[in-house]
Prior knowledge:
Blueprint: E1 8-9, H1 19-30, E2 34-39, E3 44-51, E4 54-62, E5 66-72, E6 77-78, H2 84-105, H3 107-110, H4 121-133, H5 136-148, H6 156-173, H7 177-200, H8 204-224, H9 230-249, H10 254-269, H11 282-289, H12 293-309, H13 316-326, H14 328-335, H15 338-343, H16 346-356, H17 362-372, H18 378-390, H19 402-411, H20 414-421, H21 427-440, H22 449-458, H23 462-472, H24 475-481, H25 487-507, H26 511-527
Amino acid sequence: MSAGLQTINFDEFEHLFTEAELFSMQQTLESGALIKANQVTKNTWNYCLRYGGILTDCEVKYNLKSVKQVHCACGFKGNSKLCKHSQHIIYWHIIKIHQRSNDIMYVSDSKAEINLQNNTQDELAFYLKSLVRNNPKAKKWLEFLLKLGQFKEIEISNIVEESNQFILFLNELSKNAITQEKNILQLSNDLYYASLRYYSLSDVNRACSIMIAAIEILYIQMAKRKTLNVQKFHLAIEKYLDALNQILTAIIAPQSLNTFLRYLMEFTRSKNYYPSKKDLNLFTTIRSRLKHKTIEKELVDTLQSKCLESVNHPFEFYTWDIYYQLDSDGFLRFLKSPAFSKKVTPAGILTYLGTRGKELDSKYYFELFKWIFPKLNNDLQELSITYLLDQDINWQFNSDHELILRLYLSSKNSNLLKVYFNLEIEKNILYQTAMDFFTLNGFILEEHPDIYFDLLLDSQQFKLLANELCRIGTIEQIMHYDPELPIDAKLILLKAYSDYFKNFRKHNIGPKATKRLRLISMHLMKHYSMVMSTIKNPEEFAI
Length: 543
């Protein structure tokens, strides 16, 4: 929800939220979150809302069609940017109180719908003239719609210019930001339906011109103003793009089709245009209609420029997605290029891998990962490994199996060894390769027992691991590894526990010592229940 509004009008409330936010509020209210709603005076209401498991009281004073003042127990006070509690409460009030009273007020009007189907052309013309005679807005609107039929078939720029002029006129009638946005969306929707009308009349060129104009003016207006509800604009654009793709398939004349696609190509180069969906955008529209190398090169050049221009733009990764779909190898080269590196840090590419990695082919993911990893600081390297392990990756694509071992040495993340030993190679070969690799990198494994123990565990050398834990492991290391061991390996470890209990009792007494032994005993009860019956002297483990 946007800040900086002077007041919240009931008719504008829904425009301040995304569809997902409105749905979430509706679900919360339907679950019975509003515990109390009492009218104290004519314009003052007290509410009690259960939100996030906490009961919160809230008082709201209303004007006839707007919020006058909010006092919430959470500490919020005001009438513009609302707290979460007052958002839900006011939404309930609008639906249950305000709209219901309006429905009652206008019920008689709804029964008297106007039917114009039986009127003559002269009668309709008379009604229309009467409507616009004393209504400047209606007059301008009618003039605007009539002009759409007077333009030549392909005059997109003129339609856009007329649309923007009409928007300026509407903005003069109301300085309210929400009203202005609703007017822009309404105008674009009028263009959408006008386009469909011409399409139904087989005037496909005019239909295409108007639909492109409807899309373009929304991008122009979003670039001009701080849009309060960007999602509504993009939902409208998606609807218009879907229709445009259908209209373009009906254009048979190559020259006309080429003119429209060239216009779209020029628009994609403008600073107003940024794609907001990877599968429904002007780049994919152009490519689906013009499939030859010259066009693809133009699209790639434009996408490269957009990638450089859109750094930190909310939709920057959609441009990356489209480039990757169009030319995966070229996309990878571009991300590594000096021009791109000047604009985007390795951390920026890591963010892309974290949010979009699942959509990349394993080959390209590994290539990018290997390139940025050495350039990241320690914290980001750890994060990059978390991202890597979270991907649904075919690890067989990575011929550099030592990469996994290098990453393991860098992070000590034991999950990497699990990945390594799941490769489609015999485990004894993988184990020996890992041992040789660690030795070459200066690691004396007995000086780094955790690495050694991880290797034995993930190569499934369980008895050897149990014996090595008894030989050089601490009780903490034994307790860390033994939950994953089979029974025969656990039987070996029982001797280590027995020796530990005896030795500990000799040198430690008191409540702290008892507490420590109790924790170890609980561990044994949890993980050794199947083998405890084999113990000859169970009193050794008694507390």
